[in-house]
Design brief:
By secondary structure, the chain is of the alpha+beta class. It has a single domain, classed as Immunoglobulin-like, CATH 2.60.40. The protein has 2 helices and 9 strands, in the order ααβββββββββ. The strands form 2 sheets. Strands 3, 4, 5, 6, 8 and 9 form a 6-stranded antiparallel β-sheet that branches. A 3-stranded antiparallel β-sheet has the order 1-2-7, with no helix packed on it. A hairpin with a 2-residue loop joins strand 4 (about 85-90) and strand 5. The relative contact order is 0.23.
Length: about 160
Protein backbone atom coordinates (compact mmCIF):
# COMPACT_ATOMS: atom_id res chain seq x y z
CA UNK A 1 0.00 0.00 0.00
CA UNK A 2 2.86 2.37 0.85
CA UNK A 3 4.47 1.63 -2.55
CA UNK A 4 1.17 2.35 -4.31
CA UNK A 5 0.75 5.74 -2.63
CA UNK A 6 4.32 6.72 -3.62
CA UNK A 7 3.55 5.72 -7.23
CA UNK A 8 0.46 7.91 -7.18
CA UNK A 9 2.05 10.93 -5.51
CA UNK A 10 5.35 10.94 -7.43
CA UNK A 11 3.90 12.02 -10.83
CA UNK A 12 2.04 14.93 -9.23
CA UNK A 13 5.16 16.01 -7.36
CA UNK A 14 7.13 15.96 -10.63
CA UNK A 15 4.46 18.07 -12.35
CA UNK A 16 4.58 20.55 -9.49
CA UNK A 17 8.35 20.88 -9.77
CA UNK A 18 8.21 21.22 -13.55
CA UNK A 19 5.64 24.01 -13.34
CA UNK A 20 8.02 26.03 -11.12
CA UNK A 21 10.88 25.83 -13.62
CA UNK A 22 11.55 28.86 -15.84
CA UNK A 23 9.93 28.82 -19.28
CA UNK A 24 12.14 28.54 -22.36
CA UNK A 25 13.11 31.79 -24.00
CA UNK A 26 10.02 32.27 -26.19
CA UNK A 27 11.53 35.14 -28.19
CA UNK A 28 13.74 32.72 -30.07
CA UNK A 29 10.78 30.41 -30.67
CA UNK A 30 8.49 33.19 -31.91
CA UNK A 31 11.03 35.03 -34.08
CA UNK A 32 14.68 35.93 -33.67
CA UNK A 33 15.56 39.46 -32.58
CA UNK A 34 12.34 40.18 -30.70
CA UNK A 35 12.95 42.22 -27.59
CA UNK A 36 9.77 41.43 -25.72
CA UNK A 37 9.30 39.41 -22.53
CA UNK A 38 7.76 35.96 -23.02
CA UNK A 39 4.97 36.79 -20.58
CA UNK A 40 3.80 39.56 -22.95
CA UNK A 41 3.34 37.33 -26.03
CA UNK A 42 -0.31 36.44 -26.76
CA UNK A 43 -1.27 37.80 -23.34
CA UNK A 44 -2.41 41.40 -23.87
CA UNK A 45 -3.34 41.04 -27.53
CA UNK A 46 -4.44 38.20 -29.79
CA UNK A 47 -4.30 37.60 -33.55
CA UNK A 48 -6.91 35.35 -35.15
CA UNK A 49 -7.95 34.23 -38.62
CA UNK A 50 -11.75 33.91 -38.46
CA UNK A 51 -13.48 32.16 -41.36
CA UNK A 52 -15.70 35.21 -41.77
CA UNK A 53 -12.72 37.11 -43.24
CA UNK A 54 -12.59 34.59 -46.11
CA UNK A 55 -8.81 34.62 -46.56
CA UNK A 56 -7.57 32.64 -49.56
CA UNK A 57 -4.33 31.59 -47.81
CA UNK A 58 -2.50 31.87 -51.13
CA UNK A 59 1.01 33.17 -51.65
CA UNK A 60 0.99 36.88 -52.63
CA UNK A 61 -2.70 37.30 -51.63
CA UNK A 62 -3.83 39.65 -48.90
CA UNK A 63 -4.11 37.93 -45.53
CA UNK A 64 -6.38 39.87 -43.18
CA UNK A 65 -6.28 38.96 -39.50
CA UNK A 66 -8.33 40.12 -36.55
CA UNK A 67 -6.40 41.79 -33.74
CA UNK A 68 -8.09 41.85 -30.34
CA UNK A 69 -7.01 43.72 -27.21
CA UNK A 70 -7.31 41.47 -24.14
CA UNK A 71 -5.88 44.05 -21.73
CA UNK A 72 -7.60 46.77 -19.74
CA UNK A 73 -5.71 49.57 -21.54
CA UNK A 74 -5.34 50.65 -25.16
CA UNK A 75 -2.38 49.21 -27.08
CA UNK A 76 -0.35 51.45 -29.40
CA UNK A 77 1.40 50.11 -32.50
CA UNK A 78 4.12 52.09 -34.23
CA UNK A 79 7.58 51.62 -35.57
CA UNK A 80 9.16 50.09 -38.59
CA UNK A 81 7.55 47.69 -38.82
CA UNK A 82 5.20 46.77 -36.00
CA UNK A 83 4.17 43.75 -38.11
CA UNK A 84 6.63 41.08 -39.23
CA UNK A 85 6.06 38.00 -41.38
CA UNK A 86 8.34 34.97 -41.36
CA UNK A 87 8.34 31.60 -43.10
CA UNK A 88 9.16 28.36 -41.36
CA UNK A 89 12.65 27.27 -42.31
CA UNK A 90 13.37 23.88 -40.73
CA UNK A 91 13.55 24.43 -36.97
CA UNK A 92 13.60 28.22 -37.22
CA UNK A 93 11.83 31.18 -38.86
CA UNK A 94 13.18 33.52 -41.53
CA UNK A 95 11.72 36.95 -42.24
CA UNK A 96 10.03 37.24 -45.61
CA UNK A 97 8.58 40.15 -47.59
CA UNK A 98 5.04 40.98 -46.71
CA UNK A 99 4.61 43.39 -49.66
CA UNK A 100 2.30 45.64 -47.65
CA UNK A 101 3.31 49.26 -47.13
CA UNK A 102 0.69 50.19 -44.51
CA UNK A 103 2.24 48.12 -41.73
CA UNK A 104 4.41 51.06 -40.69
CA UNK A 105 1.56 53.36 -39.68
CA UNK A 106 0.85 54.15 -36.04
CA UNK A 107 -2.51 52.99 -34.75
CA UNK A 108 -4.26 52.48 -31.43
CA UNK A 109 -6.11 49.28 -30.55
CA UNK A 110 -8.88 50.06 -28.05
CA UNK A 111 -9.78 47.67 -25.27
CA UNK A 112 -12.21 44.84 -25.91
CA UNK A 113 -14.77 46.71 -23.80
CA UNK A 114 -14.58 49.72 -26.16
CA UNK A 115 -14.19 47.76 -29.40
CA UNK A 116 -15.13 44.06 -29.00
CA UNK A 117 -14.56 43.40 -32.71
CA UNK A 118 -10.93 44.54 -32.43
CA UNK A 119 -9.16 45.80 -35.53
CA UNK A 120 -8.12 44.23 -38.82
CA UNK A 121 -4.47 43.91 -39.78
CA UNK A 122 -3.46 42.94 -43.30
CA UNK A 123 -0.26 41.53 -44.75
CA UNK A 124 0.62 40.08 -48.13
CA UNK A 125 3.02 37.21 -47.45
CA UNK A 126 5.38 36.35 -50.27
CA UNK A 127 7.40 33.15 -50.17
CA UNK A 128 9.62 32.99 -53.30
CA UNK A 129 9.41 29.80 -55.37
CA UNK A 130 6.61 28.34 -53.26
CA UNK A 131 5.62 24.94 -54.66
CA UNK A 132 3.93 23.35 -51.65
CA UNK A 133 2.06 24.59 -48.57
CA UNK A 134 4.27 26.35 -46.03
CA UNK A 135 3.67 27.83 -42.61
CA UNK A 136 4.14 31.56 -42.18
CA UNK A 137 4.09 33.40 -38.88
CA UNK A 138 2.61 36.86 -38.52
CA UNK A 139 3.94 38.78 -35.50
CA UNK A 140 2.75 42.16 -34.25
CA UNK A 141 4.38 44.19 -31.49
CA UNK A 142 3.02 47.25 -29.69
CA UNK A 143 3.03 48.72 -26.22
CA UNK A 144 0.46 49.36 -23.53
CA UNK A 145 -0.77 52.98 -23.59
CA UNK A 146 0.82 55.13 -20.90
CA UNK A 147 3.81 52.79 -20.54
CA UNK A 148 6.26 52.89 -23.42
CA UNK A 149 8.24 50.09 -21.80
CA UNK A 150 5.36 47.58 -21.31
CA UNK A 151 5.27 45.77 -24.64
CA UNK A 152 2.43 43.67 -26.00
CA UNK A 153 2.94 41.12 -28.75
CA UNK A 154 1.03 38.41 -30.55
CA UNK A 155 1.72 35.90 -33.26
CA UNK A 156 -0.30 33.52 -35.40
CA UNK A 157 0.84 30.70 -37.70
CA UNK A 158 -1.01 30.34 -41.01
CA UNK A 159 -0.42 27.87 -43.82
CA UNK A 160 0.11 29.56 -47.19
CA UNK A 161 -0.49 27.69 -50.45
CA UNK A 162 1.10 28.25 -53.87
Amino acid sequence: MKYLSVKLILPFAMLGLASCMPMPHIQEVVLPNLNIPARNINTYIKLSDPKSLANSHRNKDTLTLQLTNLSSKDVIFSGHPCVRVAAEDGDSWSDIDDNFSNNRETFVLPTMKSAPQGQLVSVIPFVPNLTSPRDVRVVIIGHIAGTASEEAGAYLDVTINP
